[in-house]
Amino acid sequence: MKLSLDWIQEYVGALPDSPKAVGLKMTLATAEIEGHESIGSDTVYDIDNKSLTHRPDLWGHYGFAREVAAVYQHELAPLNLGNWAYPASSQDLLTVSIDCDSTLCPRYNGLIIDGIQVGPSPDWLQQRLEKAGARPINNIVDLTNYILFELGQPLHAFDRHKLSGDQIRVRLASAGENIDTLDGGSHQLNPDMLVIADAHKPVAIAGVMGGANSEVDDNTTCLVLESANFHPTHVRRTAAALGIRTESSMRFEKGLDPYQTETAVRRFVTLLLEICPDAKVISPLLDVGFKAPEPIQIASRFSFINQRLGTELPAEQIAGILQRLHFKLEISGDDFVATVPSFRATGDISMPMDLVEEVGRVYGYDNITPKAPLIPVQPVQPSPLHALQRQLRTVLSRDLAFHEVYNYGFVGQKLLEQVGLSPEGHLALANPLASDQHLLRTSLVPNMLKITAENLRFNKRFRLYELERVFNENAADTAFEHDQMMLCGLLCDSAWQQASTDIYLASKGAVEDLLAQLPAARQARFVPAENVPAWAHPGRSAEIRVDEILIGRLAQLHPQTAQNLGIKAGVGLFELDIPALLTLPQPPAKQVSVQKYPTVPFDISVITAERTLIADVETLIRSLDGKVRDVKLFDVYVGENIGPGHKSLAFTITFAAPDHTLQPAEIDDLQNRVMDSLDAAGHKVRRG
User: Which residue among 60, 108, 479, 636 is the one 20 to 30 A from 673 at the CA level?
Assistant: First the structure.
């Protein structure tokens, strides 16, 4: 937001010549000064309010003036609210009703002002608005914007003669109700949205924007002034649903001080009477729905604040800081009770540690000598989950050239349908970030496929993985597991045809390389999948098991799923269940001596049934003799030469003895034993 220095100095007096910018940066909770520019004789400071934790009291110049006065120990000038009085009787000119849950509108102030002459604003008002980044429109609209930038309290002015009847209703919209807004847009409302309505129609979207049907224009002579307090979350949801974000909605969604609504009305009328002397207030202040909240009181001790800050500040200095920040103190020796001012009681200050922060930031954290904590520090116990996550990331990113990605934990119904999954069993969010991200994911696959389709526009070959949480429904008690970690890896190459087995085999190789680095999972086997997900190719899917424990799955992408998402490339995926991996027993570490004697390779080709598991053939070969050191598959062939329903598997078998060099007779014997055992198991060895 843009801050005008002379506007702030109006309330706190002249500030030290040096350093103005540094003073703001040091004292306003590390507010970042983004830049400044000269406007007339003033300087405008553009301050990023996000670094101030979105404090609602700092969305106006007067709120910043309070902070500056506290820091520089200046007297804060009170707002000029005039000495005029509300009329004693309304003469039945207007009624206001809150026809909804009172929490949606905790307070509504209304006032009728007659004798309005709409025209250009005086120069001082236009200049102030320009410094704040607003475009002057006319004196009435400009004045509502001035109060917004000064106090942080949005106001809205209705042309009274454009309202139907003498009634203002705060209500929820009807289904299908429409409103044309001041920005020229037309919006269809739903029953979850709060509106301000007259007797027949909505005239504003509460907290967001006014309607064009009650706009103040050059012919306006009488207006109804609105100053209200709306529920912050409800305003934010409405603004997000309609795609409207205004200066008003940004302030309301922070949670405003309900006491400020009347202050804003009085400030508006005071300034209006200066720039429009013929204006006249003709109704009392209508104040509906307001129930004064109980003040927040926090008991603490001066010694507690010093202990937490590591300082030795006198009690008088701590009390002075809090009082300059408008806390009321009741002091009894070292103890005190602080009453939180209403503009800080909007969820900002609620416990003793908040008071510690207030004292620390005004005193200046740079003025506190850093000290090591004088407490015993126990070593952190290693977490098996974190250790496994770190190991998986190391192997995938460093050794296997995968790139880690991060997706939102949400999915939409359309994406699930494209992937072939049902939205049933997904937890729906009450307040989604977007309409296509309203469900908590139960699998990492949908979002991985979504970003694959997007990345194929720029890259033709890549490897991705995500290691994150999914939210699976427990059918037994309908509870959701919020800590189930899953790993999803994806290989994509546009050179692969979707019908090619190269995709599946490359993915399997990547999983084997990964599991080889996990001692507990080195004996994992790939077995036919019992339950194939809709996104997986039914003939090229496998479950990954260690003994009988299911630790993951491997699959080639289903061609229909690829078509649904516009993926014109071969894609292979694998999933690993992290909790299942953690349950695997860790084999004892053992030392293996370096192979001292030569190894002897032996290539063999085996014809077997097409549905025979390669792992079963490998296991058979390994079990024959201790001198079989390694078995590696290097080719799979399916074709006319070996007949239908069969495939040819080519292995390299490595023989070695731990204590001597194998002699030719031993090698021949080992080779014959391997071939005879394969023949005896029903496989056909291609000899010669």
Answer: 636
